[in-house]
Amino acid sequence: MNNYIFQPTFGNRPNEYIGRDEIINQFMEGLREPVGSRNRCTLFLGQRGMGKTALLLELGDRAAKQDFVIARVTAYEGMPKAIIEQLQLNGSPFFKDEKRKVTGFNAGVFGFSFGLTFSEAAERQYGFRSKMSLLCDRLAEKGKGVLILIDEVCSSAAMREVASAYQELVGDGKNIAIAMAGLPHAVSSVLNDKVLTFLNRATKIELGLISTNLIKAYYNQVFESIGIHASDDILHKAAAATRGFPYLMQLVGYYLIRYTPENGEIGESIMDKAEKAAMNDLEDNVFKPILVPLSDNDRFFLEAMAKCGETITTAKLQSKLGKKSQALQTYRKRLLDVGVIAAPRRGELVFTVPYFDEYLRKS
Description:
Blueprint: H1 2-5, H2 21-32, E1 41-45, H3 52-64, E2 68-74, H4 79-91, H5 105-110, E3 112-114, E4 117-118, H6 120-125, H7 128-140, E5 145-151, H8 157-171, E6 176-182, H9 184-191, E7 203-206, H10 212-225, H11 232-242, H12 246-259, H13 268-291, H14 296-306, E8 312-313, H15 314-321, H16 325-337, E9 341-342, E10 348-351, H17 356-362
């Protein structure tokens, strides 16, 4: 059961994607808008565990049903070549009846020997941007658009090449769209890259927490479907334990099913056991990786925040750290940039990941 319903592993897609309907619908509407629409170029920002990868997978599946061929890649130096290969692989079924090899003059004109396979001359002479243009045109013959999905976005030569080509292809009127996802600080470096400034005009969406009422309803639906009974109090407790954090929702659900006998009932002891196991995974897979790249001063700042109570103000931090407001700005800005904290109101700060403050207080 666990393998098909809850997938509490980074990069995996859950059985059902909940709580992001508005975001998904906005992007899908963008695909129906004219080429160059702002919603056709979207950046999703979120800390680890917010469901960025799962969202890209969901968008890809839905776009494929709307006549788009998908190239899904992770940002790395070989990304341009990987995008070409993905489009050729995923688009080839639409040309399966075209077996005849084109030779001579036609191969030079159209750039393909057959299907989506480039002619030897095109393969040798053309770069990423030209090959993408040829693929867009060839797929358009079958009524297909192109959607590029890029996970773990960062500033790099490959990212510049892909983004620049995308901008030019849009300018040429090609039916192409792009959705990218990454950690806030990584996306920030992309937006600050002089070559990629046009991406500042893209739609930027910060993935937040999911309503615990939605999570409760989802848990109820799942447990009923597999013959597990849970009282309303248990469902409420399970949903509240997640605090709306998508990764924790997967963890709690996974362990509840794992610890409950088939056709059994989730009691208090099972609930407590599942919650404890989920928290251990959260600490190992989210909290510890967040702290690894931070300096000692950054950690000291976060620990002081954790001791400030529910409302974290600049005045409280000054008191805890014994520093003036101006001296705190360096740490504050750096931690805001990496997405560990947020500033919902002037003079106030909050942690972006649930339970992180409690983890810092006990560590």
